C-alpha cells in the first residue's frame, strides 16, 4: 500500500516511519527544504528515542522517501495523512491555514480517488472545511472525482512516540464512508493484530475526542497542582495523597504528578482552543478556564519558593537550573515552564546557569546568551546559591550530592518535580523544598 504523510514534524515523521516499519510504502512531504534534505540523508531534526535508527532502516529498505513536492507523489498514493502544525492564532483558536493549504494542493492535483486523513489536532468542523476546499478546487478544474475525508487524531507523547504509535491504547478514527473505514482498518490492523482497538465514529466526535483527551489530562495535572499547594499549607504530603487516590481504579495512577505546570506544544494550545470553540458556540468552559489559570500560576511555584527562602532578597543570587525541556526525553521547549522561570530570575537580577541533556541548542536558539550554558550538570551548580530541578531527566535522579555540596556556595535545592527524598536531602545537609510537601 502506498501512502503520503504531509508535514514531517514530531507527529508526521513518527507516523510515516512507523507505517514504513510495518511494510507500507511511505512518502513524507514537507515544505521545509532543509528538513527534507537532512531527512534524505537520515539526519533527523528532532530528539526522539529510537527514531533515527528506524528512519535509517526504512530509508535503506526503500519504504521511506522524502520530498518537498506533494504534487509529485499525490497520484501515486491512495491515502494522504495531513500532520501539519495547527498553532494557536492570536485569539487562542487553532490556526488552520496549513491544513487548508494542504487540502488545496490536493484538490488542485488529484486525478483519482483519495482518502484524505487529518492527523493534526483540529477543531470540530475542520474535516468539513477540508472537504469543501478540495471540492472547490475540483470544481474549478471541472472534474468529478470521488474522495473521502477522515479524522484520525494522534495521541502519542513526545519522548515515547514510537512505542505509543506502535502499540496504542486505542486508535480513534472518524469516517463517513465504508470505503474509508476499510482503508483505515487495513492500515491499522498490523499494529493491533491480536487486539483490534480502532474505535470508529463520526468525524465531529473524533475531532472532539482529541481535545477532550488532552483537556482531561491537563485538568488532572492542574487539579493535582492545586491539591499540592494546599497540602503545603495544611502540612500534608502530596506524594502520599497521590498514591492514596491513584490506587482507586476509578482514578488511576497516571498523570497525577504535581510539578511546575504543564508545557509542550499541545496541552496549552489545545486547552485554549477548546475554550475558544466553546466561546464561539456561546458556551463557557469554566473548568478549563480554571485549569489554565492554575497552570499559569504554577509556573511561578519554584520562583516563589526562592523568594520565600531569601525573604525577598534574591538580587545577585547564582541559580543553577537542571532541565530546560518541557519534559524529559525530548529537546522540545515549546511552552516550557523553564522559559517562564528564567525570565523571572533574570528580571529579579539573578545569575542563571543552565544544563539540559538535549535542549541546550534549542534554548540558545530561543533566548541566546542571556544565561550561562554549563557543560554538564556539575558545571551548572558551580558556586550556585540554589539548585532548581526543572525537568526530571533520568541522569538527575541520583547525582553525587557529596560533590555538589562542595561545589555550591549555599546548599539549597528546590525540586520542581518531586524526584528527591526530603529526609535524605536534609541528612546530606541541604535545605530542600519540593512541590506539595
Ligand atoms: N507534538 C506532539 O507530540 C503531538 C502533536 N499533535 C498535533 O499534530 C500536529 C502536528 O504537530 P507537530 O508534529 O508537533 O508539528 P511540527 O511543527 O513539529 O511539524 C509540522 C510540520 O509541517 C510542515 N508543514 C507546514 N505546512 C506544510 C505544507 N503545506 N506542506 C507540507 N508540510 C507543511 C512544517 O514545515 C513542519 O515541519 C498539530 O496539530 C499537533 O497539535 C498531536 C499529537 C502529538
Ligand atoms: O497532543 C499532544 O501533543 C500530546 O500531548 C501530550 O503529550 P506531550 O505533550 O508529549 O507530553 P506529556 O507527557 O503529556 O506531558 C505534558 C506536560 O505535562 C506535564 N505533566 C505530565 C504528567 C503529570 O502527571 N504531571 C505533569 O506535570 C509534563 O511535565 C509536561 O510538561 C499527551 O500526553 C499526548 O497523549 C498527546 O498526544
Automatic annotation (TrEMBL):
Active site positions: 266
E.C. code: 1.1.1.22
Catalytically driven reaction(s): UDP-alpha-D-glucose + 2 NAD(+) + H2O = UDP-alpha-D-glucuronate + 2 NADH + 3 H(+)
UDP-glucose/GDP-mannose dehydrogenase C-terminal domain ranges (all copies): 320-422
MF term (GO), any: UDP-glucose 6-dehydrogenase activity
Domain of life of the source: Bacteria
SMART domains: UDPG_MGDP_dh_C
Binding-site list for NAD(+): 30, 35, 86, 121, 158, 269, 334
One Gene Ontology biological process: UDP-glucuronate biosynthetic process
Keywords: NAD, Oxidoreductase
SUPFAM superfamilies: 6-phosphogluconate dehydrogenase C-terminal domain-like, NAD(P)-binding Rossmann-fold domains, UDP-glucose/GDP-mannose dehydrogenase C-terminal domain
Record pathway: Nucleotide-sugar biosynthesis; UDP-alpha-D-glucuronate biosynthesis; UDP-alpha-D-glucuronate from UDP-alpha-D-glucose: step 1/1
Positions bound to substrate: 155-158, 210, 255-259, 263, 327
Family: Belongs to the UDP-glucose/GDP-mannose dehydrogenase family.
Function: Catalyzes the conversion of UDP-glucose into UDP-glucuronate, one of the precursors of teichuronic acid.
Record PANTHER family: UDP-GLUCOSE 6-DEHYDROGENASE TUAD
Protein name per the record: UDP-glucose 6-dehydrogenase
Source organism (scientific name): Bacteroides faecichinchillae
Amino acid at each position: 500500500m502506498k501512502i503520503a504523510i504531509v508535514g514531517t514534524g514530531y507527529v508526521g515523521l513518527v507516523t510515516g516511519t512507523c507505517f514504513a516499519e510495518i511494510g507500507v510504502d511511505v512518502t513524507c512531504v514537507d515544505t521545509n527544504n532543509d528538513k527534507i534534505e537532512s531527512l534524505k540523508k537520515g539526519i533527523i531534526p528532532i530528539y526522539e528515542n529510537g527514531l533515527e535508527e528506524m528512519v535509517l532502516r526504512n530509508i535503506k529498505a526503500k519504504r521511506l522517501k522524502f520530498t518537498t513536492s506533494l504534487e509529485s507523489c499525490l497520484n501515486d498514493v491512495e491515502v494522504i495523512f495531513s500532520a501539519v502544525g495547527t498553532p494557536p492564532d492570536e485569539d487562542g483558536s487553532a490556526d488552520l491555514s496549513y491544513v487548508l493549504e494542504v487540502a488545496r494542493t490536493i484538490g488542485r492535483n488529484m486525478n483519482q480517488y483519495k482518502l484524505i486523513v487529518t492527523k493534526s489536532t483540529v477543531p470540530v468542523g475542520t474535516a468539513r472545511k477540508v472537504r469543501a476546499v478540495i471540492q472547490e478546487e475540483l470544481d474549478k478544474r471541472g472534474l468529478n472525482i470521488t474522495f473521502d475525508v477522515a479524522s484520525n487524531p494522534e495521541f502519542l507523547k513526545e519522548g515515547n512516540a514510537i512505542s505509543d504509535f506502535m502499540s496504542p491504547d486505542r486508535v480513534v478514527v472518524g469516517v463517513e464512508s465504508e470505503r474509508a473505514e476499510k482503508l483505515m482498518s487495513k492500515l491499522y490492523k498490523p499494529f493491533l493484530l491480536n487486539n483490534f482497538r480502532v474505535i470508529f465514529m463520526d468525524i465531529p466526535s473524533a475531532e472532539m475526542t482529541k481535545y477532550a483527551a488532552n483537556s482531561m489530562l491537563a485538568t488532572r495535572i492542574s487539579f493535582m497542582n492545586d491539591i499540592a499547594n494546599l497540602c503545603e499549607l495544611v502540612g500534608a504530603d502530596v506524594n502520599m495523597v497521590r498514591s492514596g487516590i491513584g490506587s482507586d481504579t476509578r482514578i488511576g495512577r497516571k498523570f497525577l504528578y504535581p510539578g511546575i505546570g504543564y508545557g509542550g506544544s499541545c496541552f496549552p494550545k489545545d486547552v485554549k482552543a477548546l475554550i475558544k470553540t466553546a466561546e464561539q458556540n456561546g458556551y463557557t468552559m469554566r473548568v478549563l478556564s480554571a485549569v489554565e489559570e492554575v497552570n499559569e500560576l504554577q509556573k511561578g511555584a519554584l520562583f516563589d519558593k526562592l523568594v520565600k527562602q531569601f525573604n525577598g532578597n534574591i538580587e545577585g543570587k547564582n541559580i543553577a537550573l537542571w532541565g530546560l525541556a518541557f519534559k524529559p526525553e525530548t529537546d522540545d521547549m515549546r511552552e516550557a515552564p523553564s522559559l517562564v522561570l528564567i525570565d523571572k530570575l533574570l528580571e529579579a537580577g539573578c545569575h542563571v546557569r543552565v544544563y539540559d541533556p538535549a535542549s541546550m541548542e534549542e534554548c540558545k536558539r530561543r533566548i541566546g546568551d542571556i544565561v550561562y550554558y554549563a557543560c554538564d550538570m556539575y558545571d551548572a551548580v558551580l558556586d550556585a546559591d540554589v539548585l532548581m530541578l526543572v525537568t526530571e531527566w533520568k541522569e538527575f535522579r541520583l547525582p553525587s550530592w557529596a560533590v555538589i555540596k562542595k561545589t555550591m556556595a549555599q546548599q539549597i535545592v528546590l525540586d520542581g518535580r518531586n524526584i528527591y527524598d526530603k529526609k535524605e536531602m536534609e541528612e546530606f545537609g541541604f535545605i530542600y523544598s519540593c512541590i506539595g510537601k
